Request: fold
Amino acid sequence: MNKRNRIILVALFFFSMCTLALGLYLFPDKEPMVVERNDKALKQIFPPQPDNDRSDDELKEEPPESIAPAAINPAQATQTDTAAVETNPYVSYPESLFELLGIDMSELVIERDAFKNTIIHVSWMDHINEILKNLDPEKKEAIIKNHTSLLYIKDKLNEAYLTGKIDHETFKKALADLMKWHQKTYESLLIEAEYEALFEIEPEAVDDTIDALIDQTPEYSFILNQNLLIDEVKEQIQGYKLEEVNSHFKRMVLDRGGIGKQINAGKMTLEQARTALSQSEQAFIAKCKEILTESEINTIFGSVTALETGATQTEAPTVLGNSDEIELGFKIENPETSIDSIKEKFDKNKIEDIKFFYQQRATEREELITRLDSGEITSEALENISREMDAAFEENCRDTLTNEEFQMIFGNPDIKTEFSDTAPEISKE
Reply:
């Protein structure tokens, strides 16, 4: 994917465009998390993000007269939001999607603020602040409202698709409409030079780019067998079985989204979430085994083991040096510690917690690299944020583990425990 498309995808959260397309089942530890700047627990998982409330000098350029702001339907706006629209002509809403999804304007205005602290919104505002350093405050406010509205609507769109209220083709069409609407808001906000600096694409080329990206959204993203094309799988598996598996897969993804929201709202602990996620995943696996024969499981997933682990059969085989990450989900840095000793001495919940912290850090690093490749952050910024991630990871691990357990995994020479041998002094004579 080229740099231009990556920037568009960041703006339009295409990396979470289709929850199913990303295959959350395939990557169960990559749940998008909230960047909550005032929550200690979440700060420990994610290092502090740059402050997006920096004051900016007003932009001298005015938007071209030929580009009119998107129309607002006053009948759909509440009194609260009508006032905002009157003072900021750049805030708009995709009315056709309101009708399709049954969205209430008053609820959107209240609930969209919850998306301000998501990693998607924070990352996008960081990009805007970096590229458009002198953006007019009124326009920045409009960008925030339009983007959080986008995320709110996308959440409702996901829910409608995952619950079966709309089919796959309707979902794709609605998603394309949502993305194109959002791009149009920037046409009313920015002059052409600013728009191209932000997206590295001309406005007239955006619609075709979005259509091409939407066409890549798979209907059955639970298919793991990479030795067969989706059409070949469809030829070998009866359609009703694929649909039934798909319905249970969507239920699992929907469950995961709900669990993530409860964690972010402080209504569920990490331990409760882990239990709920495991139960949801096991329910999906059990349904697949009930619906499909072993041969059909092999056709769809590659093997029964692949179904149970969510791993593709094209992944690299286990080799010396990465077996700990495959079996435990994290790397043992202490060369004197074996996998068996970890399994024997550690509580399973602690192993799961370290796995979560380790894999979440890996996910965040992948996102950082993507941002570096797209030019959103510098190499120096990447190094600084990586150090903060490492510090947050270490703090999480120290809070979870005893000194002895921490030393078993990381071999930190500074950690002294009651089980450690005291090294004898070496004479310098």
